[in-house]
Amino acid sequence: MKNRLLAILSVVAAALLLSSCGNGVPKGFQEEADDTSADVVATFDYGAMAALGHPRVMITADGFKDLSRKLKKGGPEYSTLRKISDILINFADARIEKNDVPEYKLDDSNTRLLGQSRKTLERVTSFAYAYRITKDPKYLEAAKKDMSIVCAFKDWHPSHFLDVGEMALAVAIGYDWLYYDLPLDLRTAAHRCMADYALKICSDHWYVPAVNNWNQVCNAGMVASAIAIYEKDKALSTRIIEEAIPSNKHAQEGMYSPDGNYPEGYGYWNYGTGFETLLLQMLDTAFGNDAGLSAVPGFMDTGKYMLYMASPNDGCFSYADGASETESPRSGMFWFAAKTGDQSLLMNELRLLDEGRYTGGDIVAASVPCFIKDFPIDLTKTVKPEKDIWYGKGLIPVVMVHTGWNFDEGDVYLGAMASGAGHSHGHLDAGAFVFESQGVRWSEDLKCPAYATMENALSAAGGGFWDMSQNSLRWDILRLNNVNHSTLLFENTDGSVKDRLHPTDQLVALTSMEEVYDKPECMGAKFDLTPAYADQVASVHRTAQVIDGKTLRITDEVTAKPRMAARMQWRMMTAAKVEVAADGETLTRNGKSLLLTAESSDAAVKPVYASWSADRPAGWTPRTWDPSNADYTIAGYFAVIPAGKTVKFVTTLSAK
Fold first, then answer.
1. pLDDT digits (tens, 9 = 90+) for 568-601
2. pTM, entire model
3. Residue of 208, 124, 185, 118 whose CA lies nearest to 157
4. What are the two backbone dihedrals, phi and then psi, of residue 301, each rounded to the nearest 5 degrees?
C-alpha cells in the first residue's frame, strides 16, 4: 500500500512539474524516454552537466536570460553586443525571406555536402538565437522546418566528414537551444540522426588523429551533439566526449605550439580556430572547464597571431590554401579577447563591425553573444597593439611587421615565412613574403583557385589536387608552386625553371626561423631555407626586415655547391607595372611608385635586373585548367654564383 501511494505521489508530482512553466518546461511537454544508466565522473562530471537541463551548448538558460537583460539595457557599454545581436536577427529575417532551405545536393565536384551543411548551420543557429531573444514564433518555425528537412536526409554524407561535423553542430544547437519548444517527433528524429549519422560512426575516422582543421570542426560537431543528447544515450555521449579531449589536444599541440601561429594560414585559422573556440566554450559551459585544452602551449597566443595577419590594405598575409583577397570577420577573436582581457585583439573586428562587414552569415557568428555577454573589457574603445612585430616558430615559422596601425597609407606591412611544403593546405612557398606600403600591396601571394574546379580538372588529367607528393599535378598549378611565389628560384643550365620545385616531403623540407630583429629601426626575422633548396645549392638563408618603419630589406645569403654554379632568380610576384633599368626597377601601381635595387657582396657577381611572365615561365608547359596570372608580373633579377662561393644579396624596396 505504501509503495502504491508513493507511486501515485510520484505521478502527481511529475504532472505538476509538467503543468508549470518553471525551468523553461512548458505545460504538457512530452519527453522522450531518458537513458536510466548511471552517470559517470571521468574527465568531467556528467551528472552535473545533465542537471543544467537545456540549453547548455555554449550557453545556459540563465545565460540567455542575462544576455536578454543586457540587450534591453541602454548605455554604450552594451552597444556592441546589441549591434551583433541585431545583425544576427536581421540575418535570420533575410534567410526566412529568401527561403533557401537545405537540400541533399552535392557540390560541383560531387564530393561534398558541405555547402548544405554550412547553410544549415548558419540558418538554424541564427533562427534559434533570434527565437531565444525575441520569442517570435516565426524563427522557431523556420528552425523546425530546416531541422525536419536535414533529419529526413538519408545520411549527412560521411565520406566527407566535415559535412557531418557542421551538420551535427547545426542540429545540436537547434535541438539544445529550442529543446522545450520542439515537438517530440522532431526531437526524437534529431536525437536519432545525431547518434546514427554522426556519433556512432566517428570514432574510427581519420580526423581523430589528424593535425588540421578537420579535427577541430569534427570534434566540435561531435561534442555538441554528445552534450545535447546526453540523457538519451549516456554511454555513447560520454565515450565521444572522452575521446575528443586527447584527439583535440594532439591536434592543438601540432598546430599552435609553441607560439600560436597556424600552419594552414589566414582563412583556415578562421575556420579551424573558430570551431576550436566553439568547442572550448561548449566544454566550459557544460562542465565548468575545458580539460586543459586552452592551456596547450601557444594556443592562447594565437589570437595575437591572427591580429597581425591582417594587413593595412584590407588584405592579409595570404599564404597557403586559406588565403583571402580581403579581410573577413573572425568571430573567434571575441573568445580570445574575452578570455585574455586583451582589448587590442578586437581592433580589426570592431573596425569590420563598424564597416558593416559582419553580416551574420559567419559560420559561428551566433556564438559571439555567448562569448561576450560577460565581457571583461570595454567594447566601446579601440586599443592598438603595443608592438609592431609578431613572430612565431613551429611548423610554419612566420614574422609579421605592421607599423602605425592606422590602416592608412602611412602603415607599412611585411609578412614573411619559412615553410614545410608537405603540410596540410601548404604551398611550395619557402621564403615567400608579402609587402605593403603607401596603401599599395607590392608583393603578392595569390589566392588558391576554387577547390571543385581544380579537383575536377586534375582528376580528369589523371592526378589529384590533394596529392602532396613531389610529382603531383597539384604543383603544376602555378599559384601553388615556388615559381610563382616571392622567393628565390634556381634555373636549370638552359635557363628553364621546370623541375626546380621545392621538395614536398615534410620531414625533408622543414625550414626554420634562425633569428628575430625586434627594434624600431629594424624589425623582421632570418630564416634557414636550405632544406627547400638542398638538391640545388649548399645553403640559403633569407632575412626579411622593415628598416626605419618604411623600407623593406631582403637579404639572401646563398652558397653554391662545390662543383655546381647556382643560376639564381630573385623573384617577387606583383600586380604593379614593372619598368626595368640597368640600375634597378621601378614598380608603379595606383599612382604610387616603388624602387627595387640590389647589391651583391661579390663585385664579380652582379645582379642583372629582369622581369618574367607570371603566366608563362621559361620551360613551363601551360595547362588549360591552370588559372590565368596575366594580371601579374615577376619583378627581380638574376645572378650566377660560382661553384663553392658564398654571395650575399641585399635587395631594397623603398618609396620612390
1. 999 999 999 999 999 999 999 999 999 999 999 9
2. 0.93
3. 118
4. -95, -10
pLDDT tens digits, one per residue of 41-65 = 999 999 999 999 999 999 999 999 9
Whole-angstrom distance between the N-terminal and C-terminal Cα of the chain? Answer: 99
Of 299, 364, 370, residue with least CA distance to 329? 364
Q: What is the CATH number of domain 389-655?
A: 2.70.98.70
Portion of the chain with pLDDT greater than 70, in percent = 95
Sign of the CA dihedral with 18 first, then 22, 26, and 29 last: negative
Mean pLDDT across the chain, nearest whole number? Answer: 92
Q: Got the DSSP string for 101-164?
A: ---S---TTSS--HHHHHHHHHHHHHHHHHHHHH--HHHHHHHHHHHHHHTTSS---TTSHHHH
| Burial of 506: CB neighbours in 10 Å, binned 0-12, 13-18, 19+ | middle
Query: Is it true that 31-372 and 389-655 share their CATH fold?
Result: no
Rounded CA separation 656/182 (Å): 66
The CA distance from 357 to 318, in Å, is: 19
Domain boundaries along the sequence of the chain: 31-372, 389-655
Q: Which of 389, 390, 397, 656 is nearest to 549 (CA)?
A: 389
Q: Is the peptide bond before 297 cis (omega within 30 degrees of 0)?
A: no
Q: Which CATH superfamily is domain 31-372 in?
A: Chondroitin AC/alginate lyase (1.50.10.100)
Count CB-CB contacts under 10 A for residue 498.
15
Within 10 angstroms of residue 4's Cβ, the number of other Cβ atoms is 8
d(CA 418, CA 429): 8
Residue scoring higher pLDDT (419 or 121): 121
C-alpha distances in angstroms, 590 versus 122, 140, 261, 433, 435?
Answer: 38, 50, 32, 21, 15
CA distances from 582 to 240, 421, 575, 597 (A): 66, 35, 21, 10
List, in sequence order, every residue forming a beta bridge with 545; answer none if it has no partner.
Answer: 524, 553
For residue 452, the surrounding DSSP H or E stretch is helix 451-460
